């Protein structure tokens, strides 16, 4: 019976609507009987005695009173065996409870079965909002909604479903332990419970986290969003966010004014991305992160370069010069909205130096994802940052590409592998609700574009991008999650694309209904500033002064960008390979030969195992012995030659990483660089890491059965990170 009830208690519906019938059906058959008379035939009599006792303990013989008080009788609340639920109900089972009436009077009466079931129904109602509230959240700033989900309110979020009616709304209930909506209050009216749940789960934030296996993580998220004191910002935080939104919005306006016919892949419609990213960086920097490696598609790249990395505006504006040759851009020949940068500067909010690397990305959208992860892992490795406390990654995505491109799925599956993890990535989706010209209903089969993230238990926070306060709260919680749990998290910024796919594209050809609505949208800067001025959070003259200040910065940068020196600047490179070529001539290369003595040393050591290590007999008695004999004859085969080559690089002090499918043993059972103890699980030995005390580290790791993502990851893992240019904090 416990197994049956435990499964029912996990389902909010069954645990309330069918519990009385379940109790009647199974009580006699499944109760543990300390006395023989407790059988099915006498069950009804015992139930009647219990109900009589529950109303007045003095109305029954004292032996019955003792029997029920000592919980020998397994009464209905004991059906709920989950710790949180049983603890919640146990408070109500053995004593009189104080239940407040809707009029404010306090009535003291025994807790009867209806009270128990009603409290269980309240717990189920709370759980339903936590699990399903996102389905009716107001996420779309256009108000079109429901290309993703049916807009009809789920039955589980209605009073009728739990046998409540209007007359119950002012009854007070003790809050279950699965929620934090009460703050300091231990009980609330049903009306207030529903109001708070609606505000948290069904307004401009939609939360998906109930599928996470860890109760600690689920409770942490609940508290961050349900506790009334969590969603509060100081005036200085609001003013800082306004300044950032001014920069994001006015930068786009300036580009549109100066280069109206140029492709820019602007951020209009999702300008909140800039203050959102800055809030993330402020939060993680305050917790010790000093390096943030980013990857993103075209849309918004110039704005991120200008207002997140704070790349000098002159270097961006000069790229619009029509006389600029491809070879002038540091030899890349690529367009400006594909390029990256690497800059180190002061982050004012945390008062710490932070290094930003925005990785260049081609038109292949999500191709940059594993490259960013490999670069992040390389930084962590060379800095000894074993837990990702100093170096982290942020990946930006479009909604259509995030749902449609397989490399996203491949990269997620690297996220928790020991040899590939970067200890948590923050994913931000600029959800335009369209892919180039393709409607989401034609582009994916899943309800949300984010559903791929659920495979690794990553929480997903959907948020209406026109509600700036909600966006700032969501991204702050996401940054705290990454620093605390070192796991991936996804932020779905539901926004719109004010222009077409690019600024010279005509979207009305294919999305007339959507773009009629977009043309009516008030720019988010004006909408939010008007609201803040109205409620007294900021002053009109302060805001206007900030606008004037940034306009001057833009004008001065435009004038300075005429200097041709800016076009030659190499800070468009996200990282450099210093000293890759040495020497003279058309193809210079270093001397790579090693002495025979060195090769002999390597050959002697790569087949030694620690004392007590149980090596497979075939390896010990045949394969390794055969190779030892080859060494004595001054002969090598492929496997031995490979080991000598890798070993010689390690002895020079260089890190070597060999990654891929089945590389540890070798597909043809030839390499055997990772040896397994035959009698102990998960006990390994890597002989190549024991050649010399001064050698480089040898990382050899089997990958997931991926091709594209692992290749991209290793592209950057092979680079030794170099310092970025350090820039003074830009004016303004």
UniProtKB/TrEMBL annotation:
Its cofactor is Mg(2+); thiamine diphosphate. InterPro entries: 2-oxogl_dehyd_N, 2oxoglutarate_DH_E1, DH_E1, THDP-binding, Transketolase-like_Pyr-bd. Residues 635-715 form the Transketolase-like pyrimidine-binding domain. It catalyses: N(6)-[(R)-lipoyl]-L-lysyl-[protein] + 2-oxoglutarate + H(+) = N(6)-[(R)-S(8)-succinyldihydrolipoyl]-L-lysyl-[protein] + CO2. One of its GO terms (cellular component) is mitochondrion. GO terms for biological process: glycolytic process; tricarboxylic acid cycle. It comes from the Eukaryota. Its EC number is 1.2.4.2. It holds the Pfam family Transket_pyr. Residues 246-564 form the Dehydrogenase E1 component domain. The keyword Metal-binding applies. Keywords: Calcium, Glycolysis, Magnesium, Metal-binding, Mitochondrion, Oxidoreductase, Thiamine pyrophosphate, Transit peptide. One of its GO terms (molecular function) is thiamine pyrophosphate binding. Residues 35-70 form the 2-oxoglutarate dehydrogenase E1 component N-terminal domain. It is found in: Mitochondrion. Belongs to the alpha-ketoglutarate dehydrogenase family. The 2-oxoglutarate dehydrogenase complex catalyzes the overall conversion of 2-oxoglutarate to succinyl-CoA and CO(2). It contains multiple copies of three enzymatic components: 2-oxoglutarate dehydrogenase (E1), dihydrolipoamide succinyltransferase (E2) and lipoamide dehydrogenase (E3). This is 2-oxoglutarate dehydrogenase, mitochondrial.
